[in-house]
Specification:
The chain is mostly helical. It has 3 helices and no strands. The protein is elongated, with a radius of gyration of 17 Å.
Length: about 80
């Protein structure tokens, strides 16, 4: 009759924000979003069905790989052009 929603609305909101920040090259914000996502997952994981946990674990692992080295401090510094 009624089906339980297979996603967590708060986690989906964080993931959406994180992906938008990445697409806009907001590196610090994306890193903050990722930390929030991991914390949120840790707080809610024991209330999720195993299949849903696996989906979020896979997404977190994928994002962790994408965000490795994704900071402003790792950007090369370009010298100012000589006039």
């Amino acid at each position: 009759m009624f089906f339980r929603k297979k996603t967590d609305p708060e986690m989906e909101k964080i993931i959406t924000t994180l992906r938008m920040d990445m697409s806009n090259n907001y590196k610090d914000a994306a890193q903050d979003d990722f930390r929030r996502l991991k914390k949120c997952f840790e707080e809610r994981a024991d209330k999720m069905p195993e299949k849903v946990k696996e989906i979020y674990r896979a997404q977190i692992a994928e994002l962790e790989t994408a965000l490795k080295g994704y900071t402003h401090k790792d950007q090369p510094v370009h010298a100012a052009p000589k006039i």
